[in-house]
Structures are given as C-alpha cells and as structure tokens.
Amino acid sequence: MNKRVLVTGANGQLGKTINELFFINESNLEFTFVTKKELDITQKLELKLFFENNEFDFCINCAAYTNVEQAEKTPKAAYKVNGEGVKHLAQVCKETNTILIHVSTDYVFDGEKIEPYTIEDEPNPINEYGKSKLLGEQYIQKILEKFFIIRTSWLYSEKYGNNFYRTILEKAKKEKELFVTDEQTGCPTNTESLACFIIRIILSKSKNYGIKHFCDEKIMTWYGFAEQILNEHLYKDIKIVKAKNYRTFALRPKYSILTNLPK
Prior knowledge:
Blueprint: E1 3-8, H1 13-22, E2 29-33, H2 44-53, E3 58-61, H3 68-73, H4 75-96, E4 99-105, H5 128-143, E5 147-152, E6 155-156, H6 164-174, E7 177-180, E8 185-186, E9 189-190, H7 191-203, E10 210-213, E11 220-221, H8 222-232, E12 239-242, E13 255-256
Parallel strand pairs: 1-2, 1-3, 3-4, 4-5, 5-10, 6-9, 7-12, 8-13
Antiparallel strand pairs: 8-11
Helix pairs in contact: 1-7, 2-4, 4-5, 6-8
C-alpha cells in the first residue's frame, strides 16, 4: 500500500526540492504539496478540517518563519508560525495518527562550543528565531510520540529561494568586491541532501523517533563558502574581503556544527 505524504510550506526551498526530486518516483509514495495559501498551519480549524478530509501517513513540515533579522524586530510573527503553528500541527498529527517530520535548526544552540553539537546537548538559543524554533520542538516532544525533529545547518538550494548561495551569485553579477564574515563556522547543507535524508527515513520505516541532526559534511566559514561558490562558477575577478566587524541585528551562533553521533 502506498504511503501518503503531506509536505507543508511547499513554496520554500526545501519543499520545492522534495517536489522536484520525489514527486515522480518508484517508491510507492504519494505526495500532497501545500503552500501557506493552501494550508496555513497557524489556523487550527483549517488544519483540522484538512486532515479530516485527507488521510496521511507522514507530514513533512517545511512551513516556517525563517527571516532571522525580522524575527528580532517582530518576534510575534516568528512565534506564531514556528511555535504555535507547529503546536497546532502536532495536535492534528496526534489526532490522525500521522507521523510528523519537522525541520528545525542549528540556531537552537548558542554557538559557544568548540566541538560539534550532539542531540544530547542542551539548547540555548541567542536570538528570537532560534527561540521560536525551540518552542516548536518542545511542543512536538510534549504532544507526540511518533515524530522526527531534524535539525540542520546553513540550508541552501542552488535553484530555489533566498539563501546565501544564490545571494552570493547575484552580488557577483553586480559587484567586484564582496564583504563576507569569517567569524561564523558551520556546514552548508544542500536541500537535495536533506530531502534525500528525509525520504530515507520514510522508506526505511524507521521507528527510531526523536531528534536527529543532519548536515553536509564540509566545515567552513561563510567566507570559505563564498569562495567555493565563486570558484564553482568561475568568478575569478571577484575579490572577497573578510568582514571582521560584520554585525547583524540578530545575534548568530559562531559555531554551528551538528553531529548525529553521541558524545
């Protein structure tokens, strides 16, 4: 029997990647992709009716408020989606016996470690975005038994969305000098890698529920990532300057390496 999979936030970079890679597949998975306009997770009644009128085995939640800077200025908007919206989704998944696969972030940590964060490490977010994502995680753990929370690091798509990879390429078309910080370290993670990891969980019929960490393996700074992007696209004449005093409105973790391995 085919497994029915709902993907929320289908207009985001991860939702679009899952659609591209797996909508036509030979794995007996039937996908339903919904955008925020089609299904708003902050609307509990709307969610309830949608799940009652459709049957799903899995829900991959890609719906999220991801504007880190704006979350600092208007945190209520972030908490509404990343906290309360996720709470509503968890409640409906429980009522309908749907396994929730929720995408979270390295930003639930403060970035003060000098070794990779494990699933056993205590979260300590330093900005409103991270706090709102942690709240969503906590709701899921309180409400559900069958769930996967997947924390990832520096997610980007080469094709979709607003992300560092695409921003660097756009700037390279217009500017000869790019200022990029080398004060933050992480593992840039391609949406294709994360999409494959999520689908493997479904196909493996895993019952090893709980929090998982997933990111691509190459460790680098934003400066190093920018260098890699420009080299890939043969932008030899672009100068990258290390922005030592790079500041943003929101505090950001300095070290964002995640590992699925125990301590």
